[in-house]
Structures are given as C-alpha cells and as structure tokens.
Task: structure prediction
Amino acid sequence: MAAMSGAAIATKDAAGPRVTRFAPSPTGELHLGNARTALFNLLLARQVGGRFVLRIEDTDAERSSAVHTSGLLEDLRWLGIEWDAGPDREDERGPYRQSQRGEIYARHLQTLEQRQAVYPCFCTPLELELSRRAQLAAGKPPRYAGTCRDLSAAERASRAARGPATLRFRVPPGAHIDFVDFVRGPQSFQSDDIGDFVVRRADGSGAFFFCNAVDDACMGVSHALRGEDHLTNTPRQLLILSALGLPAPSYGHVALIVGTDGAPLSKRHGAASVREYRGRGYQPLALANHLFRLGHSGAQPGLLSLHDMARGFDPTHLGRAPARFDEQQLRVWQKDAVHQLSPEAARRWLEAVMPAGLDAAAARAFIAAVLPNLVLPEDARAWVEIVFGEAPALAAAGEELVRGAGAQYFAAAAAAAASSDDLPAIAAAARAASGRKGAALYLPLRLALTGRADGPELAPLLKAMPPGKARERLARFA
Result:
C-alpha cells in the first residue's frame, strides 16, 4: 500500500491474480543483472500460477534497435524464460512495444493536462545545466528550479516560439510519498526533494517515469520487482498513477550484483552479458542456478530446474545487501549441468572443437571419455589433440618416469595394444613383464599414452583413440 499526504493510492488486490513483468530497453545485450531481474519476475509469477509479461521499452529511438530486441528475446528463451504475453505474443493489453503505444500515452497525458497536473517547460538544456551547477555549488541537491511552473498564458505563448516544449509533472509541495517495498520494507520520500520532472520529451515521446507507470497499470501488473537503482523512481511513478487515478503495483527493489571486489559488476569481472556466456559454452541451467542464488537465500541444494526454482522462490528471502557474482561458483553449477547432458546434447555442445570427419562411434567414445573432466568446450581442445593428434611430448620428469619402467614393460604393453584397446589386458601384460603394480604400473602407461599424469579415466580414453595409435605410442619406449 502506498500513501501520499494521507491520500491512499490504489494498489492491486493481494488476493487477485499475480502479474509480473520484465521491461528491458533494447539498447544493448542482455546483461546479468537484467537477466536475474527477468528470472526473479518469472519465478514470482510462476510461484502462484500467475502471469509473466515481457514489455520492450523502446521509446528511446536513437539507442533502441530491432537487432537488440531480437537478441533479448533469444537470450531470454535460451535461459528458459518464457512469457505469457509480449511483443511476439500480443493480447488485449498490448501492444507490448512502447514505440507502438503512443496513442495510449497521449490519452493519459491529455488527462494530466486537463487536471493541471503537468505544465510545459521551455528551458533549454544549457539553462538546465547552468541551474544544476549553481545548485551543486551552493551545496544543494540538483532539482528543477520551477522556472516554467507558474508562467502565465501569455508568457507560455511567447516562449513557445523558442521551439517544442517538454511537459513536466507538477509535484505537490510538502507531500510525503510512502509505500511498502515488498523487499526492503517501508519507504518514505519527501516531494520537496524530487522536483518537477519530465513526463513528455520535447520530441513528443513519453519519458521513462511516465510510460513505465502507465504501462504497468494498463497491463494489470500486480508486482514490479526490479533493481534497487530504480528505488528513487518509485515515488515519481506513484505520483503519476495517483494523478491519473490508476492502480499502482506493489514495488520491490532487489540489491544489485557486484563483482568479487565489491564494485558494480562490469567487464573487468569477466563476461558481462548473457550472450558472452552463451558463446563461451555455459549451459543455460548453470547460469540460471547461479543467478537464482544471487540475492535470494534459502535455496535447495543442487542443480535446480526452473520449475523447482519457482516452487522454492520466496520474495521475503531476497536480500538487501549487494549480491557477489563469483565465476568460480558458476563453474561449479556448469560442471553439474554438463554432467547431466545427454549424449546428443553433449555432441552439439562440443561440435565446434571436435575433429572434422570424425565418425559417430568415435565421437561418442571420445565424448564419453572426456565429458566428466570438462567445464567448457574449450577444455576439450587439448584432449582432442592428445587423442587424435601426434604423440604428446613429455616433460623431463615424465620422460624419466617412463624410461624407468623399462623396455620390456612397454614392449609387452605395445604387443597387447596391437590386439586390444582394453586397459586391463594391456596393464596385465605390462605387469607380467615388469612385476609392477598400483601407480607404478598405471602411471607410465598414462604418461606414454597422453603425455599427462592427470585427466580423464584412462580406460575410456584408450577406447576413444584411433586404431593403432595406442600401440604406436607405447612402442616408442620399447
């Protein structure tokens, strides 16, 4: 519930249908913070069988693009986030692109004009900047000085010759704007700290505060969950909705995501967009699980489906402290997700790093051998070279250990490998020839075959090698 100067602003009935929304601006790629906002709103709706709406806020024609809109939709669907209504799923509350809602905004702006809740502002950008600097120099927070607030009709007509005017909302002086944030608790703002703000730009397009608030009301949004950087927008939007007599959603503001150094998440912390993580081979479920736990506590352990996330989502468990993005923890979820891949999904995931012309049986054997040791597709490149390429060179320590096993050891192993790719059979022959056992038996075999002392299990790796390759590598030391 929100209140302004003691007058209640209507809010959605808590017993009614829950409708949430994600409202990105298509001015770039989908970044992790916005992806988490979309995920949380989806879960908040699905938790009670409600509706989730996708709205594209593209009133900034210079920065918005169809390419970015298409990319947003694609990245959201890749994460598993599906909407009930949106720019490609129109219904009676649409359209869901703000660039197509001009008539709706014009009607509500006309209502504000009729109620004298707005007025034209003829101040130039230079005049506004000089006023802002003067207020800062005087130690005051910058806000609109009200220059055009009380102009007479004659003065307005005279100044209109300068060019198109913006339209500013007339913020009532001395008012308190109070509301309960369903994440952060009771909030209170003073209208005198806000200043009259623009609701329509000079080019005739609606400003964010106005369009966002009107759309939430018209689209039946009951809960607006967004980043805490929008918290100070809320009193302005409540004022707009009150002036229009429209219901306000319940607002919740979740803490932002920061890097491990506590600074706002940026490219210096690694990939910053969903598209970049996709390109590196991260699984959507891995990224969704990590985002789910950033700022939301009490989650069940283990890799969760979106259905299970919705069942366990609790807005009272959304934190007020910044959530730290840790790519090492993301890699843990990634490894869990990779382990769950079907053979066919794993083949598609590794397709870019697999050798050209490899037959299906060899590909399956290789993937089965290396998959448990992979986090990203790039990790498989070294094993592609080890299994299918030239014999790997040995470091000095490895060379010494291999030579120490003796020529008889490798002669027997190579002879066994000529007729079998079964590791126990090859090891048995080497043991019979050398008397070695345990690590002393198997480590020289691993080094001779792969050039490394660690890695995937040797038995399946051996079966993935092309015919004759194991024998050749073992015979080098006979």
